[in-house]
Amino acid sequence: ADPAHVRRPQWPRLRAREAPPAMGTTRKLQSEIDRTLKKVQEGVELFNEIWNKVYSATNANQKEKYEADLKKEIKKLQRYRDDIKTWIAKSDIKDKRPLMDARKAIEAEMERFKVCEKEFKTKAFSKEGLGQARKEDPKEAERNKTRKWLSAALSSLQDQVDALEAEIESLGAKGKKGKGAKSTDELEGWVEKHRYHERRVEQIVRMIDNEMLSPDQVNGIQDQLEYYLESNQDPDFCEDDGLYDELGLDDLPEEKEDDDGSGGGSERDEPPPPPEDKKKGKKEKEDKKEKEAAKKEAAKKEKEAAAAKAAASKAAAAVPAVKAAAAAKGAT
Fold first, then answer.
1. Model pLDDT for residues 171-180, shown as the tens digit of each residue
2. Of 65, 85, 32, which is closest to residue 263 (Cα–Cα)?
3. Of the four, 55, 229, 250, 321, which is 20 to 30 A from 174 by CA?
């Protein structure tokens, strides 16, 4: 349950279709307003789901992840609020009540987030928090440091995806691109690339949590990843196709999921599997090893059988000699 001092105000439920087109409102603008109101409603609901996860999380790593997700969601709502403020100021939109309700709902969530963010910072600098920092294992401290910059990279990728999707939507509404602007296909291509890097970074975070990768290994790609994040839209940008090769992500075993089934990451698809020829080569190596092991085992058994047979023959040959010695001893 929410703490008493941050309980959510009961704003009217948003309905995207509550704003019928006014006489001066174009159909295209009204359609854009309806889409935004729907996104606001979905965003507010998702914000509340994440909020509940923050206050019910028992694992420190999970709590930190949910806090980052909460921050990401409030940023989205703030962007919608900027659009809504612009529309409210337009004189040709007559029925502004749904827009006003949506703005109030977003601002209410912003106030809740401020209180929540203050609590995060207070806990981090409390006596208890400082005491825990002194007791923290050096290896865990290194992992947390690496998680922090990976989380920032994920946030940057999501922001860039949001900006690209907004540009794609804008191009779709206009019907044609301006001089020098990127085409829809180009923008969608960049969205796919960003999504790929998101999946890879989420996979790395899970592997650090499960101690399948060390912070030193992951920190080795930090400069290349930051270059991608900061410069991917530069005219002279040169993409590194082997950015994750040194981590050998495709060769590592499947990472374990957390108890809640979230795996410490998002619900998006996992990174693409290794190429088929790579799998085939790996299987051939395993088959070869198995055959060699079977040959060694057979040779070992054959050697043991020969040794046992020789020992039995030697024992059988010694019996007459023992009998003769016994007879000679009896005669004397």
1. 877 666 555 5
2. 65
3. 229
77: Cβ contacts below 8 Å, ≥ 6 apart = 40, 43, 44, 47, 106, 109, 110
Distance CA 76, CA 94 (A): 26
Collect all residues with Cβ–Cβ distance below 8 Å to 154 and sequence separation of at least 6.
Answer: 68, 198, 201, 202, 205
Among residues 198, 209, 213, the alpha carbon closest in space to that of 62 is found at: 209
Contact call for residues 167 and 232 (beta carbons, < 8 A):
no
CA-CA-CA-CA torsion sign (198, 202, 205, 211): negative
Spatial CA neighbour of 204 closest among 250, 158, 273: 250
Q: Distances from the Cα of 332 to the Cαs of 28, 158, 324, 329, in angstroms?
A: 129, 106, 13, 5
Quote the pTM value: 0.41
pLDDT computed for residue 178 by the predictor: 58
Q: What angle do CA 224, 226, 227 make, to 5 degrees?
A: 65
Q: Vertex 185, ends 183 and 190: CA angle to 5°?
A: 100
253 residue type, one letter: P
Cβ contact 165:206 at 8 Å: no
Query: What is the spatial distance between Cα 110 and Cα 80, in angstroms, rounded to a whole number?
Result: 12
Q: Return the closest-CA partner of residue 262 out of 50, 35, 86.
A: 50
Residues recorded for the chain: 332
Contact (CB, 8 A) for 169 and 80: no
Give the amino acid at 234.
D
* Helix and strand counts by DSSP (H, E) for the chain: 9, 0
Distance CA 145, CA 250 (A): 24
Q: Using one digit for the tens of pLDDT, what is the confidence trace for 225-268?
A: 988 998 888 888 888 888 888 888 776 554 444 444 444 444 44
Contact partners, residue 293, CB within 8 Å, separation at least 6: none
Main-chain dihedrals φ then ψ at residue 68, nearest 5 degrees: -65, -40
Q: Please report, as a single letter, which amino acid is at residue 187.
A: L
Angle formed by the axes of helices 97-125 and 60-88, to 10°? 150
- Tell me, what's the pLDDT at 91? 79
